[in-house]
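Notebook B, p. 112. Complex prediction, attempt 2.
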Amino acid sequence: MSNDSDPLHNPLLSIREVHASAGGKAILKGLSLEVGPGEVHAIMGPNGSGKSTLARVLTGNENAEVTSGEVLYKGQDLFGLAPEERAREGLFLAFQYPVEIPGIANSTLLREGLNAMREHRGEPELDAIDFLEIAKAKADVLEMEPTMLSRAVNHGFSGGEKKRNEVLQMLVLEPTLAILDETDSGLDIDALQVVAKGVNALRDKGRSFIVITHYQRLLDYIVPDFVHVLANGRIVRSGDKDLALELEAKGYAWLEEGASA
Amino acid sequence: MSTATVQATAFEAEFDRFAKLTADTAPAWLRTMRHEAFEQFRAQGIPGPKHEEWLYTNLTPLARTALPLAPRPGEVPTSLAAHRFTLGVETGPRLVFLNGRFEPTLSSTSGLPDGVVLIHGAALRDEEHAELRKELGTVADTSVHPFAALNTAFLNDGFVLRVPAGVVVDEPVQTLFLHTPTGQPVAVHPRILVVAEENSQVTFVERYGINCIGALAGGTCFTNAVTEYVLGQSARVKAVRIQHEGTSTYHVGLTAVRQARDSHFDAVTLSLGGAIDRNEFSIDIDGEGAECNLAGLYVLNRNEHVDNHTVVRHNVPHGRSSQLFKGVLAGKSHGAFTGRVIVAKHAQKTIAEQANHTLLLSDGAVAETRPQLEIYADDVQCTHGATIGRLDEEALYYLRARAIDPGTARNMLVHAFASEVTEAAGSPQLVEGLERLIASRLERPSEDPDGTTSAFRGESPA
């Protein structure tokens, strides 16, 4: 599991000393992180520590402005890629607040997205029938009604349905690196287990995850290889899954003090 | 004549010429009707931009231009590419008019149930058919609509569709009015009467287009259409109206509707570009329990101008009406909506709603909206709302985060915005046909001679 012991190992994602601001305010203050293929990294931290800004920086959201530092993804400069290009290279964000888009069917969004990725990989376009077969099978994994596919994207969905819909999109698009931004927030334990089931279904040697969460509970179901604590725009502590348990017991205050010191 | 209008001297000589030319074929009733209408037109003149009902549209240049009736096109196309002109509904009755003249070789009355009457041209003019056309001119008020008066003055080759009581016409009745540009300014005055008798049902499609693709010959076409609908008790009419005559056309259309008790009139109107497009609905809800739903979409670019103007009169209690007009404006286009709802004093329990939403895709586009509620009853539910906005940047980012390129994403969002209107057409086939038209409006550069189609898809909305 350790990167250092493998000289041939190239990290999938390498975040180097990234500084970023949002709304004119500095949020990330020299954040560094490496994610190798097949690894699951959990990022925990108090509100305002920069967790969502990190997700925005990685996926090219204009609301986060990178002021310095670099990110290499599959060895290439991530900041040189537009959001759709990052997605086609297998980067996926499960949004903390999924956007409602009345008038566009879930299945239309998914098919357009999947076909854009397939085209990028030089694969033939899927027709509506082949696509629906795939989408229905994925919906089934998440115990979602197939009718969810014909509903407008997130429109009128409950909070739990929206989160589940994000995971459905992840299953259909089969990313190389998935970032889950507080996908567990607001979910009851049943929904949490279903979401975790979706993530675990996708886990394999080549696929990596960054799981951003407030709560240790999610990590009972999606067991991480590494846990990092983000405070004041930097990673102040890294460990294995036991760190999450420690945080659950002790809170963040003891680490934040360390961060600002 | 008020100072807000301009005298239309250019039409006088043309009317005299037309009257002489058709003296032999026009029976007395028609000659009288035309002359009375022309007098009404002359009395009203052409409304200028100070006219209360014409604030957004200035057609006074027409007063100075002699606009002869469009000549019979030199060449009649042998077929109309089905996908372009039939909205995907390949079968069923279809009536094609070229430069205002009925074209039998391109038309078909197949699929009309027994008893349905469809007459036009000489048959319509025939003294013997007085009963079949008895409602002609009784719905459109030529004393307040100068262009409707002008239309009646030039009435010659109109037609009447009459659906007898209880008859359901399954397939849409499609009409197509095509200009063949000649390089000269010309006028056509299409005239339609649709009568849906008690408990009958019909879908009627009117389409106004240009019989050529790509860059248009010079010259200005003036289309001045009047369609009258008479709905008997419990009749159901779905009306689809599509205008895409292009930037060399001035289009004035009046759809005048009279509804009896418990009847339903649902209209979908698409304005897909023209130099000036004035699209007017005048609805009289004359029977209790009647319902009227108007849905309109306008997709404009360059200097195109659309003025949607509605008047819904609730003259009796327990009526219901809704209006939903949506605009997608790019380039330096101009979209106006004036929606008036008049609820008479005794028209209690009326429910009327009205909404106008505009999507601005450029800084140069202008949207204007003017809801007017005149409510004289005291127990009604009337609402109106209007929004003007840009594409939702968050939605755009969300689509891009799912690997979709920005051009496609913008297009998807515009389609999503429009779909609320097209879905009002009801039948999946028609909805699909309308959506295809909108897609080609948004995407096909060949119909956009200036190559500014990118305004709908452009990288930057500015």
